[in-house]
Design brief:
The complex is a heterodimer of chains A (97) and B (177).
Chain A lengths: L14 E2 L1 H8 L3 H8 L3 H9 L6 H11 L3 H4 E2 L6 H6 L5 H5 L1
Antiparallel strand pairs in A: 1-2
Chain B lengths: L5 E2 L2 E2 L3 H25 L12 H10 L28 H14 L3 H30 L7 H26 L8
Antiparallel strand pairs in B: 1-2
Classes of the chains: A mainly alpha (97), B mainly alpha (177).
Amino acid sequence: MNPASQKGPGESGLYNRIAVLRAERGISRQELADAMDVNYQTIGFLERGDYSPSLKLALALGEYFGLPVEAIFSARPLQPLSEQVYGTRAGDGEKRS
Amino acid sequence: MIQQRKFLGISLARRSRRRTLVAGFWIMGFSFAVFAPFLFRGHPRQFSWVFLPFLAQAALLGGEGRKGLVRDFHGHTPDNEPVDYSFMTPEDIAARKEAEKQNRLDEREARARDAAHYKAFELLRWSVPLVAFAAFTEPFIGFAYVRQALLLLVVLVIQALPQSILLWTEPDMEEEG
């Protein structure tokens, strides 16, 4: 588990990739909050895994990031995105060299 | 759920500061409830002191209207019915929408508000019968000041408990951005 790639589960029991996706796309909390029509503090709660979103908000986040909901939220620890896409793990590069 | 980040120039982003403020509010409120009936006895309008907790709650803690530390509990939420704008001029609709936007509670805030009211109700459910029992118990019968103090305390608790719970429990606030 790469702690930098995901947050949670916090109080909600959900792991999520919102912080990673937001950082990857250079979106501020406020911008995401405005797009989701929620308070920016709510985005912080979601990122920390302290709030479990409604299905409507989860779907809206999925639509915003262009990803399925299960790529953003999971009840189990999420793999780092690079590992999921390319099958590489942390330290693999060092081993090869 | 907290709309005012500062009080008298002091940042309330940290929960510990909010808790200090809440504790101060309740010490003052409790003192007021205990001493007001004694201090203002015989005053021709002593009944009007019953409204002081309402003013303190509205001006400081919030929850009712746009003033105060906590956001308006009556703000439009995602679960509310769509607003009916019929028979309104475009200017009125624009003004109404702007007001709703400012007062709006998102789903987490609405949930936090409801949870705070539930916790407050659970506390009141047990404390109000105790207060009523105390007011009817032998030593207090005929002792109007004590009954007045208890009633003032009940009014204060009913008015300010949900806001106090929210201020007490909401975690440290993060910077915008």
